[in-house]
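Retro notes (design track)

What went well: tokenization of the new backbones is finally stable.
What didn't: we kept losing track of which sequence belonged to which structure.
Fix going forward: every design gets posted as structure first, then sequence, in one message. First example under the new rule, 288 residues:
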């Protein structure tokens, strides 16, 4: 877990570090299993302990931003309600909105993704726009422009940005040296925290990636329902003797070093449940 007070080893005192703390919005439940993109729909912020855990790792005295979509505002509200001091302001940055998926919005997500090539990380090639919408490169370019602007305006500060999966993947791609396609390879789960540090010197700037997709609540199986992409989900339950009665889902592979009875993602042993934990998993093939 990233420590906001940890010294930046190898960083010159002449370098200005601006630390970005990206938080993906809470899960969307009312999408009907459909692609929603920039549709302005609500999210589920009912699990207070998840937001208490997120609040504990975010820096105080940070500058806050959110996208212009209400699910990011609701997520920020939930973090503040969990005990994080509410900032004086949180500008709504339209450039941080999710990719506009045009005519794909409203289509069944599982059916759409099943039509894509095996190994695809996103809805289409990064340069291919959705009909009536944007390409991932359109999203990437507007996110990068806003980050560059805020890096100047908030140089040396902590910046908390509540945004979306595609937005945060774009920011990761920027931090990887301007490789948007590499950013798409990362999972960005609901309510997760990703920290990216921008280091600016007199004639050069670079990025560090202290953590990606951090989920400080995940060791507690009671909150497993928050660890999934948006869409139809299986609500996890403990002590359910019927899970895997008919065998694991076809799209699930064993975690390395984990016996068959603790098949799952993430590895149940690492969550402290052990092979007999009997966590009913929250499987979902949709990686977005």
């Amino acid at each position: 877990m990233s420590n906001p007070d940890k010294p930046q080893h190898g960083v010159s005192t002449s370098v200005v570090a601006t630390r970005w703390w990206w938080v993906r919005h809470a899960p969307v439940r009312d999408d009907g299993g459909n692609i929603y993109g920039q549709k302005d729909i609500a999210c589920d912020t009912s699990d207070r302990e998840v937001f208490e855990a997120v609040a504990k790792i975010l820096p105080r005295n940070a500058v806050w931003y959110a996208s212009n979509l209400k699910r990011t505002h609701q997520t920020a509200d939930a973090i503040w309600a969990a005990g994080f001091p509410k900032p004086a302001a949180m500008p709504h940055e339209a450039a941080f909105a999710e990719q506009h998926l045009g005519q794909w919005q409203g289509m069944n997500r599982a059916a759409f993704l099943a039509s894509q090539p095996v190994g695809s990380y996103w809805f289409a090639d990064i340069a291919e726009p959705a009909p009536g919408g944007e390409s991932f490169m359109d999203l990437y370019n507007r996110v990068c422009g806003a980050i560059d602007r805020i890096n100047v305006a908030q140089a040396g500060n902590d910046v908390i940005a509540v945004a979306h999966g595609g937005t945060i993947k774009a920011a990761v791609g920027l931090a990887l040296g301007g490789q948007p396609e590499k950013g798409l390879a990362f999972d960005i789960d609901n309510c997760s925290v990703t920290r990216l540090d921008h280091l600016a010197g007199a004639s050069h700037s670079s990025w560090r990636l202290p953590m990606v997709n951090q989920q400080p609540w995940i060791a507690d199986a009671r909150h497993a329902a928050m660890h999934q992409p948006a869409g139809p989900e299986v609500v996890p339950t403990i002590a359910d003797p019927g899970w895997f009665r008919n065998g694991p889902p076809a799209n699930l592979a064993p975690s390395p070093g984990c016996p068959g009875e603790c098949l799952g993602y993430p590895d149940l042993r690492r969550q402290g449940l052990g092979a007999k934990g009997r966590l009913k998993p929250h499987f979902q093939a949709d990686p977005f």
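Added context from the reviewer: Residues 229-234, 236-288 have pLDDT under 50 and may be disordered.
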